[in-house]
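Progress against Task 2.4 (sequence-to-structure conversion) is shown through the following example record, which the project officer requested during the mid-term review.
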Amino acid sequence: MDTGMDKVKSNDLTEKIDHLHLLISIFRGILKKLKCVFSLLLGWLQTQLNRYHRYTLIPDKMNTLSLLLRFPHCRFLRRISFKSFHSNFTPGSLFPYIQSFNPVCLYCTKWMLPASDLKRGMCYQATVDQQTQGLCDKEQRLVDRLYSGLIQGHRACLAEAITLVESTQSRKKEITQVLIQKVLSYHREQEKLNKGKPLAFRVGLSGPPGAGKSTFIECFGKMLTERGHKVSVLAVDPSSSTSGGSLLGDKTRMTELSRDMNAYIRPSPTRGTLGGVTRTTNEAILLCEGGGYDIILVETVGVGQSEFAVADMVDMFVLLLPPAGGDELQGIKRGIIEMADLVAITKADGDLVVPARRIQAEYVSAMKLLRKRSKVWRPKVMRMSAKTGEGISDMWDKMTEFHDLMLTSGELITKRRKQQKVWMWNLIQENMLDHFRSHLAVRDKIPLLEEKVLSGVLAPGLAADLLLKAFKDRP
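Structure tokens generated for the chain above:
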């Protein structure tokens, strides 16, 4: 009797287990269908987003700086995506633009990159990665240390970075390019935060020897630091054509300004570079701006009529002339005069006041005959004295007026973009001569042809043609 009852109970239990397995199977089938439907829904939503916005999601691990380093020319937007549950399946396996759900965070921030800029950003990143991978650990630590100290405003790191930039060693040049690229990306990020406006005002100061450039910068820089500005002075000294050395004495004329903690003075030699500046002045300007200086003054060597390379590096070109700077005819001559945005007659004090007024009047009439280079600004001629301080404040007022007008009209941004292209071609021109001299097809022929030119057997033009032909024929 008991055995029969046990068999009945066992059959009932088996039937219940079978029913339970059936329910589980049905439930699993429903879950699978819901999973497929949900995945298709997510894919459809993402397709609609891509259709209207055409954005590519960037991984959350990349912070703002790394994004700008990878894609410096692109626009980024933020999107908030809510995450409310956790599941075993991974949508990212079916749709690579959807990440796995996180059960801890309720939402996450994702960066979106316009798809039109993705290809260009990838090509740029490949170049940056190639440069960075070529550095050893010690060199990478040096770049990171200089970059971190520079953006934090450490003067020692700024000085060391400029020294690295001025080096002529090939390996240090490669390290320099990596550092400059990082500073450029940081500079671009800061300009975006500043609504696209330049962070610093670049002013080039040039003039003949003895015009009082260093004395003017001493007085002018002190006035700017007292008004809350951070001033960087890049003073260029001529190098000896015989010994190759340079006195670097401009800083000795700026005793007060050199002790000011809101000012940084860096003298540099020309090392044979023409135009009144050094070959690394552009890089030094960029490093100073990365260090937080908002006024960059570039003082050239004593120049003549045709040396105005600094005009392609700064926002405003100021020409300083002594009271005995010639007559009206000098102002009409083309060259450095027509490149000036502001002409200042220096040393207008004491017995030189009358000559200063006369030369100012002559240059005012002469400037009217020159072709206008800007639609919103006509060059001004002023008098000033660094000894008495007369006219220094008025000069700064004219400079700020120039900056505001050029920025409002958009000419300042256009000018800076053109200067970037000039900078690139100057570097190409400089490096091409070194590449030509070290070329395998030319290197061995140069001494022989030079000897024939010195002895008068071969004309210099023909020797140059032979070297160029050898350079072109052999890659």
